[in-house]
Amino acid sequence: MTELIQNREDFLKNLTEKLGIERQPVESHPFEPMNQLPHETLSGKTQDELLQVAKERVKKIHTNIVETKQADLEGIINELIGKWGNGKVLLPTDNRFKEVGLNQFDANDYANHSVDFDRAFWQKGADYREENIQTASEANVAVAFAEFLLAESGSIVVETHAGQGRSLHFLPTHYISIVPKSKIVPRSTQAADFYHEKRAKGETLGSAIHFISGPSNSGDIEMQLVVGLHGPIEVVYVVVEDL
Amino acid sequence: MGLKTSEKPLLERLKDSEKDVFMQKAVAKAQDAQWEKREGARDELGNWEQWRELGEQIRQHTIAYLPDYLEQFSDNVAKQGGKVFFAQTAQEAQDYVKRLIIEKQIKKVVKSKSMVTTEVDIDPMLLDLEGVNVMETDLAEFILQMDDWDEPSHIVFPSIHKNREQIRQVFEKKLGYKGDNEPVNLARCAREVMRKFFLEADMGITGCNFAVADSGIINLDTNEGNADLTISVPKTQVVLMGMERIVPTMKEAEVLDNLLARSAVGQTLTTYVTFAGKKAEDESDGPEDFHVVILDNGRSNALGTAFQSVLQCIRCGSCLNVCPVYRHIGGHGYGSIYPGPIGAVLSPVLGGYKQFGELPYASSLCGACTETCPVKIPLHELLIEHRRVMTNELGMQHGFDDFQMKVIGKGTSTPWMFKSAMTFAHAGSAPLSKKKNISVENMYDYGGYIDKGPGMVKGWTDVRDLPRPPKGSENFRSWYKNRQKAGDK
Ligand code: SF4
């Protein structure tokens, strides 16, 4: 299996023949949407109004929103972790912790700040694959930043980077998402636009982008909702008003 | 299992389904629950018709330029070091995965629910491989696997034909589960069993809701979180996708994710909406080895024909949930892994009329499927087109006339398919304000059934054109006879 793309030419030739077209570069037929509904829906709202929309929505997806000021953020998070019984807390290696004053979660500084739980960091680099996955599967809680909060669906958006892998969001039992209030947007449209533009500008994207709406769930047994299946069984969004 | 799920002739399968009262109740319950959620979610969004038009436009555009987008997509996967295999047939797709497993000496495979993996018969192949263990990680599929690989009965709820007690018994027998039959406890048991397996898995197999052409990534919509683990933990990932499941950019994927979640499960978005490809160099989890298998397997038969629009399908299952025939016979009755109205249109395209030519007749042509489809596939018109092609172009008339007669009950057998389609509440009896109680039976009152449509082949299908359905209590046959006498078509 050395060739990266196999059997393409014959396959596509069959399609073009059946369609009765010639192959063209995609730039020659850009998609022009017939309406702007995705952008019009929930447009023109203030951050406060969007937060209100999100607060209504999360009630339906078994998720809590806690509002706080930056000064109280640390206390709120420690309280949540305590409520869940402390234990191992998994953290991304992320400079934003320091920027918002959560030095206890800063990978370079955490040792100087004592807490009631064990902290483990998502280690940077491919060599730490097994170790990171193992830690995530043992973690009682994960705490990470949201890139966006989508008001309409009550979803947080996360993007992978070296210091924050994919399974950090899925293996721990509980999950806390820190959401700067300025990062609340109307809906998934704005998140898709953001990543679309980022790519268009030639910037590198994380290899995985997740929109996550609360805890995992399933209705597969007699259509009765069960909250908490593969992913976290409890999720809290902490919205920071002055960020 | 492949496309075909049963060797029995359709009439026999229908009789089996008719006897399965639990299944019918389960399907009815699922349909009614979905009805409320789905319509609620669409109402809440607003402008539903315009959203559908946008969805249709995206899908039509992509299919019209399918070769170009597939080329762009595969180039982008390759740019990241991923591999793309174009498979003309299910066998080619299966063989590719098999070679990969043998070459890489894979021991444990985790799968997340996908119709395409069933279509290419991945499971029996995996089970035949010495030393390879496989686990279905979607809860419904896990239940089916534990019950000796029972077949799925619904696109979105594959195990609705099983109740909690049946599931408890299966878990007790297969997993040594000692608890009660509460869904949450059953689910926790499944979580533990699967979690352990996940952590040891070296290959993940997923389907694909949408492939994003301009970035070479895959978009997956799920609720349970199993797909996200499947693309995180194992070092090797294989994506099996129908060739039509592609969109130009993340922007169009986002629109379809919205339509899909509202239509399939009545949610704003599914709990997890994920866009992911091969892991980046400096990242530690995610697939180091990333393979996408793009499958034709008969789909191209639809291109350039009246059936091209069937490739617009986003597998939301909505047409199943509004179908009175599906309500009565359930998924297994169709004998194809793609059941319901979409299955009745798609299966003959993929598998041919010889295997699936009866399915376009397993429909009341009420039009509810067309009306609910979020990407505006004219399903009931395509069912009629199938009949037309078979009758006029392929000269298959005789056999199907016979079939039609038998099903309709103009001869001797029971006309239950009809009855199931025709026991709506009377149009005047339920005001629109009673939205909460909408079900397949009374949807007419909600404006659910459409009244326009092309001319029908003569016979029982004319029923669709009738001005209003009979009262539930009225005997359909006498009513129908009266209409015929009156010449009122
Ligand atoms: S045909 Fe339409 S309604 Fe049916 S599953 Fe496909 S997209 Fe959904």
UniProtKB/TrEMBL annotation, chain A:
<dbReference type="InterPro" id="IPR003741">
    <property type="entry name" value="LUD_dom"/>
</dbReference>
<protein>
    <submittedName>
        <fullName>Lactate utilization protein C</fullName>
    </submittedName>
</protein>
<dbReference type="InterPro" id="IPR024185">
    <property type="entry name" value="FTHF_cligase-like_sf"/>
</dbReference>
<dbReference type="InterPro" id="IPR037171">
    <property type="entry name" value="NagB/RpiA_transferase-like"/>
</dbReference>
<feature type="domain" description="LUD">
    <location>
        <begin position="52"/>
        <end position="240"/>
    </location>
</feature>
<dbReference type="Pfam" id="PF02589">
    <property type="entry name" value="LUD_dom"/>
</dbReference>
TrEMBL record, chain B:
<keyword id="KW-0408">Iron</keyword>
<dbReference type="InterPro" id="IPR037171">
    <property type="entry name" value="NagB/RpiA_transferase-like"/>
</dbReference>
<protein>
    <submittedName>
        <fullName>Iron-sulfur cluster-binding protein</fullName>
    </submittedName>
</protein>
<dbReference type="InterPro" id="IPR003741">
    <property type="entry name" value="LUD_dom"/>
</dbReference>
<dbReference type="InterPro" id="IPR017896">
    <property type="entry name" value="4Fe4S_Fe-S-bd"/>
</dbReference>
<keyword id="KW-0411">Iron-sulfur</keyword>
<keyword id="KW-0479">Metal-binding</keyword>
<dbReference type="Pfam" id="PF13183">
    <property type="entry name" value="Fer4_8"/>
</dbReference>
<feature type="domain" description="4Fe-4S ferredoxin-type">
    <location>
        <begin position="304"/>
        <end position="334"/>
    </location>
</feature>
<dbReference type="InterPro" id="IPR024185">
    <property type="entry name" value="FTHF_cligase-like_sf"/>
</dbReference>
<dbReference type="InterPro" id="IPR017900">
    <property type="entry name" value="4Fe4S_Fe_S_CS"/>
</dbReference>
<feature type="region of interest" description="Disordered">
    <location>
        <begin position="465"/>
        <end position="489"/>
    </location>
</feature>
<dbReference type="GO" id="GO:0051539">
    <property type="term" value="F:4 iron, 4 sulfur cluster binding"/>
</dbReference>
<dbReference type="Pfam" id="PF02589">
    <property type="entry name" value="LUD_dom"/>
</dbReference>
<dbReference type="InterPro" id="IPR004452">
    <property type="entry name" value="LutB/LldF"/>
</dbReference>
<feature type="compositionally biased region" description="Basic residues">
    <location>
        <begin position="480"/>
        <end position="489"/>
    </location>
</feature>
<dbReference type="GO" id="GO:0006089">
    <property type="term" value="P:lactate metabolic process"/>
</dbReference>
<dbReference type="GO" id="GO:0046872">
    <property type="term" value="F:metal ion binding"/>
</dbReference>
<keyword id="KW-0004">4Fe-4S</keyword>
